[in-house]
Design goal:
two-stranded antiparallel sheet; ten-stranded antiparallel beta barrel; alpha+beta; 2 domains
Length: 230
């Protein structure tokens, strides 16, 4: 089924690239199609298929994320204002989905005396060569989209966070001291200055199926950045 989808996508791309169809709105006749010879030197179907399959194949970056599949407890600490901070506890589960291409995170806990839950999907875009992450939670109706890369031993993701006062730039720095500990540090940008707003420390409480059956579960990875609970 995956190969069929790739072939279909490749065919549509090829058709669009050489302008094969013309359709006039309101006409009762079926759309007409005229094949145009592929210019010499243009990418052929086989080369296009190989490129698409390479972009769709999980690699070392995906394995790094998948290494953290399992259950985690979380301790949160976020600033509520100058000299004010709110601490809380939560739990997170991480699992690999779509053939190891992404990790799905589910977070539940408390923040400022209220129940809180969120969901994340995190992966690595082979074509763009960067990590990608989306997050949604019970405290809002917007979706946070972040992108980034490794900087030394830390994964740095940035995106635009929406709030009642509008959007502002946000950054999450994810570190993993060992295979059983992850630390996410949160920053918000105001007046061109990054201000630390909070931190979540995750401690592993159980292994996922990936860790039980795969050696790179012992290598450590990055997975907490998809869980921005409070």
């Amino acid at each position: 089924m995956i190969r069929t989808a790739l072939v279909g996508a490749a065919a549509l791309t090829l058709l669009a690239g050489v302008g094969l169809t013309s359709y006039h709105a309101g006409s009762s006749a079926a759309p007409s199609m005229t094949l145009v010879a592929q210019p010499e030197g243009e990418m052929g179907m086989d080369a296009m298929m190989k490129m698409m399959q390479k972009a769709a194949t999980p690699g070392k970056h995906h394995a790094k994320l998948a290494a953290n599949a399992g259950d985690w407890k979380a301790h949160t600490k976020f600033s509520m204002g100058p000299g004010e901070a709110s601490e809380g506890e939560g739990v997170m589960s991480l699992e690999t989905i779509l053939g190891g291409r992404f990790t799905l995170g589910r977070y539940t806990g408390g923040f400022a005396g209220m129940d809180f839950e969120g969901v994340s999907i995190t992966g690595y875009d082979n074509a763009k060569k960067q990590y990608v992450s989306v997050w949604a939670d019970s405290f809002g109706t917007s979706i946070l989209y972040m992108t980034g890369n490794m900087e030394g031993d830390e994964l740095v993701l940035t995106g635009m966070a929406a709030g009642p006062m509008g959007e502002h730039e946000m950054k999450i720095v994810s570190a993993q001291p060992d295979a059983n500990t992850m630390i996410d540090t949160f920053y918000d940008k105001y007046a061109d200055e990054w201000v630390q707003s909070g931190q979540i420390t995750y401690t592993r409480t159980g292994q996922g199926e990936h860790d039980k059956h795969n050696e790179h579960g012992k290598q450590g990875g990055m997975g907490g950045m998809g869980s921005r609970g409070g």
